[in-house]
C-alpha cells in the first residue's frame, strides 16, 4: 500500500491531544509572514524579492489562483498512490525542491540540512551551482536519495567541464541547466539595500573549491578574496550562448538534461531538437523579467508543444497542494518548490524543511482525493475551470 501523505494532518491533530501544536504554521502564507519577522532585512529581501515592480511574482500567484478545481465524486479514492515517473525515475510524489543558491544566509545548516530533509521525505533536491556548500559535501548529506545538480552555464568552459566532472563523481545523475539567468535581473529590494550575498563570498563555495576556477586567479582565494568574488561575478553567466552551444553540455553529460526557465513553446521545441530530456517551465519566481508571462499561463502552451517529446516540469508560484494539482492539470509531470522550503529552513532548519514538504504533500494528497483522483496520472485540464477574473 502506498504512503498516504494526508496522514500528516491526523498526526498533527493526535499530537494536539497531548498539548503539542506544530512549531511552524501549516499555511504557507503565515509561514512567509513568520519568516518576514525572523529573517534579517538583507536575506529576506533577497529571498522574497523579485524583479522590477514585482508584477511577475504576483502574476505567478494570480495565474494559479484564477484556475479553480472542479471536483469529481464517487470515484473510489480510498487507496491512493502519488508516485510519478520523472526522467525514468520513480518519485514518491510529483515534487522536487528547486535550486536555491546562497541559502546559508537564512540558516547556518544550509544545503546539507535541505539535502537531509529532502532525503528523509524521498523528494529530489536540485542543488544549485551557487550553493553555500561545496557540492561534494551536500552529496554526502543526500544519502541514497536522488541527486540532481543545477548548472549556471558560465563563460569559462573549463569551469563548466570541471563542474560537470565533479557533479558526476559526486553521484549527481540529472543535470538542470538554468537558461534564464545569464545576467542577474533588476531587483530593487536588493539594490535599495546594496545587498547581494555573493559580495560576501556566499554562494561561491563550488567555485572557490574548483581547480579550474582557481587556475584563473592570480592569487589564492584566501590571499585576495575580493578578486575571487569579482572573478566569480565575471564568469557565472554567459549571455552569448545560443541553442547550438547545448551540444557542449550534451557531449559532457551522459544523464538526463533539463532546461530550466523555458516559457515559449518554440524554445521548448528547440530544446527537444537539441536532444534535451526535459524543461522546467519557470520564470525564476519572477526574479528575472518583470512583466514576463506568468509561469502557469505559459505551461499549457509548452506542454501542448512538447509534452510528447520532453518531460515538462513546472515552478514559480507553487505554495499549496492545490497549486501542485493545478500544475499537473495544466500539463506538468511534477513541480519544483522554491521559496516556501527556504522559509522552513530559515525558521527551523532541517525539521522546518521537512514540515513544509509534509504539509504541501498532505494537502496535495487530500486535494487529489477530494477531487476524485487516486493518482496524479488521471489529472487533466478537464479538472479545472478558468475563472474570468
Ligand atoms: C533566493 C533564491 C535563490 C535562487 N537561486 C537559484 C539558483 O541558484 N539557481 C536556479 O536555477 N534558480 C534559483 N532560484 C529560482 C528557483 O529555482 C525557482 O525557480 C523559484 O524559486 C520559483 O519561484 P517561487 O519560489 O516563487 O515558487 C532562486 C530563487 C530564490 C528565491
Ligand atoms: C551573481 C550570481 C547570480 C546567481 C543567481 C542566483 C539566483 O538564481 C537568484 O538569486 O535568483
So, the CATH homologous superfamily?
A: Aldolase class I
- Backbone shape: globular
The whole-angstrom Rg is: 20 Å
- Distinct ligand kinds: flavin mononucleotide, the ligand CCCCCCC(=O)C(=O)O
Give me the side-by-side strand order of the main sheet: 4-11-10-9-8-7-6-5
What's the architecture, going by CATH?
Alpha-Beta Barrel
Structural class: alpha/beta
The CATH class designation is Alpha Beta
- H/E order of the elements? HHHHEEEEHEHEHEHHHHHEHEHEHEHE
Low-confidence stretches: none
- Strand content range: 5-15%
Number of self-contained structural domains: 1
Helix content: 40-55%
**What integer is the average pLDDT?**
98
CATH topology: TIM Barrel
Main sheet attributes: strand count, strand direction, barrel closure: 8 strands, parallel
Based on DSSP secondary structure assignment, what is the total number of beta strands?
Answer: 12
Number of helices: 16
The termini sit apart by 41 Å
Protein name: Alpha-hydroxy-acid oxidizing enzyme
GO molecular function, one term: FMN binding
Family: Belongs to the FMN-dependent alpha-hydroxy acid dehydrogenase family.
Pfam families: FMN_dh
Amino acid at each position: 500500500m502506498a504512503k498516504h501523505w494526508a496522514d500528516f494532518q491526523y498526526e498533527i491533530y493526535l499530537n494536539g491531544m497531548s498539548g503539542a501544536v506544530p512549531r511552524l504554521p501549516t499555511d504557507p502564507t503565515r509561514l512567509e509572514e513568520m519568516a518576514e519577522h525572523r529573517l534579517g532585512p538583507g536575506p529576506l529581501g533577497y529571498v522574497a524579492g523579485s524583479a522590477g515592480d514585482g508584477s511577475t511574482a504576483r502574476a505567478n500567484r494570480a495565474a494559479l489562483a484564477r484556475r479553480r478545481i472542479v471536483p469529481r465524486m464517487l470515484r473510489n479514492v480510498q487507496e491512493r498512490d502519488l508516485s510519478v515517473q520523472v526522467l525514468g525515475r520513480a518519485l514518491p510524489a510529483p515534487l522536487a525542491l528547486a535550486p536555491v543558491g546562497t541559502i546559508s544566509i537564512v540558516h547556518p545548516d544550509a544545503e546539507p540540512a535541505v539535502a537531509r530533509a529532502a532525503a528523509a521525505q524521498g523528494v529530489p533536491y536540485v542543488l544549485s551551482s551557487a550553493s553555500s556548500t561545496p557540492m561534494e559535501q551536500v552529496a554526502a548529506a543526500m544519502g541514497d536519495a536522488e541527486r540532481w545538480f543545477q548548472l549556471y552555464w558560465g563563460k569559462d568552459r573549463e569551469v563548466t567541464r570541471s563542474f560537470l566532472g565533479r557533479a558526476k563523481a559526486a553521484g549527481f545523475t540529472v543535470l538542470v541547466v538554468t537558461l534564464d539567468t545569464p545576467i542577474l535581473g533588476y531587483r530593487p529590494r536588493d539594490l535599495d539595500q546594496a545587498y547581494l550575498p555573493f559580495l560576501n563570498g556566499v554562494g561561491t563555495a563550488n567555485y572557490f573549491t574548483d581547480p579550474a576556477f582557481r587556475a584563473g586567479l592570480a592569487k589564492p582565494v584566501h590571499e585576495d578574496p575580493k578578486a575571487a568574488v569579482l572573478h566569480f561575478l565575471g564568469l557565472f553567466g554567459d549571455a552569448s550562448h545560443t541553442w547550438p552551444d547545448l551540444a557542449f553540455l550534451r557531449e559532457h553529460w551522459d544523464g538526463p538534461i533539463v532546461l530550466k526557465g523555458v516559457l515559449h513553446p518554440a524554445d521548448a521545441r528547440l530544446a527537444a531538437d537539441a536532444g534535451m530530456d526535459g524543461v522546467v517551465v519557470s520564470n525564476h519566481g519572477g526574479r528575472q523579467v518583470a512583466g514576463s508571462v506568468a509561469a502557469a499561463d505559459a505551461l499549457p502552451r509548452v506542454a501542448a508543444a512538447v509534452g510528447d517529446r520532453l518531460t515538462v516540469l513546472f515552478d514559480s508560484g507553487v505554495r499549496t497542494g492545490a497549486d501542485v494539482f493545478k500544475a499537473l492539470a495544466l500539463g506538468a509531470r511534477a513541480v519544483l518548490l522554491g521559496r516556501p522550503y527556504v522559509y522552513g529552513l530559515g525558521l527551523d532548519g532541517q525539521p522546518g524543511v521537512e514540515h513544509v514538504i509534509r504539509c504541501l504533500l498532505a494537502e496535495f494528497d487530500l486535494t487529489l482525493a477530494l477531487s476524485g483522483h487516486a493518482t496524479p496520472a488521471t489529472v487533466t485540464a478537464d479538472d479545472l475551470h478558468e475563472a474570468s477574473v
